[in-house]
Amino acid sequence: MTDDKAPVPEIRVSHADRDRIAEQLRVAAGDGRLTMEELDERLEKALNARTGSELALLVNDLPATGGAAASALPAQVKELAQIEVSSGSARREGRWVVPRGLDVKVGSGSVRIDLTEAVFTGPVLQIQAQVRSGSLSIITRPGVEVVLDDVSVNSGAAKVRRRKGDPSAPTVLRVEVSGSVRSGSIVAKPPARGFVDWLLRRPYVYQPRS
Description:
Layout: H1 15-30, H2 36-48, H3 52-59, H4 64-71, E1 80-85, E2 89-92, E3 101-106, E4 110-114, E5 124-131, E6 135-139, E7 144-153, E8 157-160, E9 173-181, E10 185-189, H5 195-199
Parallel strand pairs: 1-3, 2-4, 3-5, 4-6, 5-9, 6-10, 7-9, 8-10
Helix pairs in contact: 1-2, 1-3, 1-4
């Protein structure tokens, strides 16, 4: 007697499934587990994948923590989020999901956007900023590139700070900032070292969250 049952076909993956795997690959590259060439090659395969097994092959040699973090991503990511502060302060820090774009308005207060543990949802984050006498701080990590070319400055400041001797890493997120600064400031910088590291003049070392 022969078995007439046909094999069950694999479920086709969605755009959200591809985006989750792409994010896991970007995090792995930022941690130094993939080279830029490997990242580009795997991202292309992820975008063209049709089944779950094709996606699984792209991450089966990466830590499970990366996959767990990626699977926690929402199916739909915000296209635009808004942060508006007059004289107070606002923070985005810890493990938060970065939207496609941010609209930031600062009066005399402060806004801190910490990307050191953030979950990236795409290769580019566009920030439209209007800063009067307050401040906008962007905290970076290896693999995060900040561009301030489209920011107009009156009597304030807009700058990107880097540490000497920091190792180079493939760019996993490009932050494009545009807008204006009056007497305030926009500063992109790596995290501050702890007191003991500062005292002993030890360099800051990025440790991916497990």
